[in-house]
Write a structure and sequence with these properties.
2 copies of one chain form a homodimer. Chain A is α/β, with parallel strands linked by helices. Chain A has helices at residues 25-32, 36-43, 51-64, 70-77, 93-108, 124-132, 145-152, 182-195, 218-229, 244-256, 268-280, 314-329, and strands at 6-8, 82-87, 112-117, 137-142, 160-164, 177-179, 202-204, 262-265, 290-292, 309-311, 344-346. The structure holds a DNA duplex.
Chain lengths: 356, 356
DNA sequence: GCGAGGATTGTGAGCGGTCACAACGTGGGC
DNA sequence: GCCCACGTTGTGACCGCTCACAATCCTCGC
């Protein structure tokens, strides 16, 4: 197959007329026979402008195709209507969906949205500074360790809101933040499995945002609590990654253990990997083993067996985070940030009673 | 399950010291006992500054925590080092992966990345204007009709590069653009199925970027060409959407037709839906029907049956598109844009010989 | 020992807007 | 008929930085 990527520089040489420098308010003012300040008043909808003058200016604006220079506006007014999202990932479903919510909310509010990915190799402070240099606000997606670390380093004077895995234990978040009750959701999912007759539930973990605390995040915590409440000693967790491959590795080991009849996974990708490993090992789902995922990725209802999972309102979380940021930027316009929907357990084929 | 979303306004009242207006070059100049112009020279690495002076200025910069105001720099210099991506979607795998490539490339080059989603409801011109107002360049993801329409409306004076489904038939692209040879890839995939003994291949389409031309994009075209080359009359196509649900609908109908033994899908999500429909209809894959997807989404190798698909280098496409834009913005720095990898057919379990 | 020329530094102007204030009319109230 | 308030418009300064140019300092060669 000889199928190569292509590029085309396209177009012809420069068209005869030059780059045509954009018109400024002074150009408009000259064309309309008024002062630049009057033009400024018109484009800002200032009330005290004579109707006839306004019309003349508007006509000149149309004629010259004037658009207010956003950079100059920002410099002179100090207002920047922009948000930069700092995140370690943009493709994983949870992140992508959150980003989408943020984008929608910011677009609706007339804010420009920037995205800046942080990697472990990057200098966190440089990255944050670059984001803050735009002059607008910053939203940090702190679902993982990198994001959480970034959040901690945002200078106090930078307007900032965060999405976190869970509020830091013990202390109130240093920044306005939104989160979903992952712990409770994990507990509910685990209880559901126990109620189906499973003696225990194994957990395949996503990397936690806090390296320290029990080496686990709220999802693991909820799982553990549900087991303990049922008088079951939590078995060791597995999983080291976010993707299906990591789930597959973990699943391979779990598949060998005949005591494993129920597996909760930190996200749907992991669950898919686990499903695959169980399949390879000849263990049927849900007859032999039940599997529950987390997040409800768009395709999770279409794989076979379809995946029982916890639906998360990442979208709403993103919108809420934007609202929190906007409240800082736009102190007067106190719009209430929408409250995200609660996580819900979506029952599908991958879970069922023990010994069905 | 009472699991609600939470927000926290966090933090305490304003700390005693005021917002601490950021230091300007004049502040630094005063602290270092030089003129503001000298500070400007230092931060821009101008050669003709005495070593001792430079040190003094650097020290003042450190002491005051000075960071050059990006807005003022942009206004005064006219240089903006920023890209805004215009796209109709950020979550679907192809888009998300492209976006990721764009982000990486722009970050590596020190450009800020903005994202702006266009919807059918939006006024295209307003959206484009908003993107162009940032002063930087624009990259349009023209994989679909909305994106393609947006591309057509980008004013000539705005630096712009595009990702397209395929170059517009007949005319050279009006803008520098990158694309993959989807047509050839679809042809190869179709030929593969025919070589496995299938009498014909059915196609479940993604929405095309051009409403007009034969109502199909390059993927459909390649499929059709392969069939025609083999002397087979292309059966009617189906599919109206991008997601698994659309694939499921299309698959339900195809499943009823016993002549259907091979199905090519416009993307992996559709393929997943088709797989699901076949499963519900009791038709085995690949024994009864072969299915091939497109894009190679991360999870496609982990579903059961794992999906034969065409791997696309969206990542490389994104990087290449950025390179094309940068060449316009940074006329001197003529770095060669990386060439994306060619699409490759990835053979997995969902395809096999007829009557296996 | 002095002038040329390069290195180093400072000054003025301007990017394209905004803000604060002054300068015009006008009309109404006395 | 006069004064003041108000509606309307214009002027100056400034946001924080860059550019172009002028001014100063040094060093070298003759």
């Amino acid at each position: 197959m000889d199928v190569t990527g292509h590029t085309s520089s396209g177009g012809h040489g420069d068209p005869p007329q030059g780059p045509q420098k954009a018109a400024s308010i002074r150009d408009v003012a000259a064309a309309a026979g008024v002062s630049y300040q009057t033009v400024s008043r018109v484009i800002n909808g200032h009330p005290n402008v004579k109707e006839e003058t306004r019309k003349r200016v508007d006509a000149a604006i149309q004629a010259l195709g004037f658009r207010r220079n956003a950079t100059a506006f920002a410099l002179a007014s100090g207002v920047t209507r922009s948000v930069t999202v700092i995140t370690s990932n943009t493709v994983l479903y949870g992140y992508a969906a959150t980003l989408q919510g943020l984008e929608e909310a910011s677009r609706a509010a007339g804010y420009a949205l920037g995205v800046r990915v942080v990697t472990p190799e990057d200098d966190l402070d440089r990255t944050i500074a670059a984001a803050a240099d735009t002059g607008g606000g910053v939203v940090v997606i702190g679902f993982d360790a990198i994001g959480a670390a970034a959040l901690d380093r945002v200078p106090a004077h930078v307007p900032c809101a965060a999405l976190v895995e869970a509020p830091r234990p013990g202390r109130t978040p240093s920044r306005p933040a939104v989160w979903a009750d992952d712990r409770e959701a994990a507990r509910a999912a685990t209880e559901h499995l126990l109620s189906l007759g499973h003696k225990t539930v194994h957990y395949v973990a996503i990397p936690a945002s806090t390296g320290t605390r029990r080496l686990a995040g709220p999802r693991a915590e909820g799982w553990r609590q549900a087991l303990e409440a049922a008088g079951v000693a939590p078995p060791p967790t597995s999983g080291k990654g976010w993707d299906a491959q990591a789930g597959y590795e973990a699943g391979k080991k779990l598949a060998r253990n005949k005591d494993v009849t129920a597996i909760l996974c930190g996200n749907d990708d992991l669950a898919l990997g686990v499903l695959r490993a169980l399949h390879h090992a000849g263990r049927r789902v849900p007859e032999d083993v039940s599997v529950i995922g987390f997040d409800d990725a768009p395709h999770s209802g279409f794989v076979t067996p379809s995946l029982t999972t916890v639906r998360m309102d990442f979208h709403g979380l993103g919108r809420a985070a934007f609202g929190l940021l906007r409240a800082q930027l736009d102190t007067d316009q106190q719009e209430i940030a929408p409250v995200p929907a609660e996580p819900t357990l979506v029952l599908r084929e991958s879970s069922g009673p023990r010994d069905a």
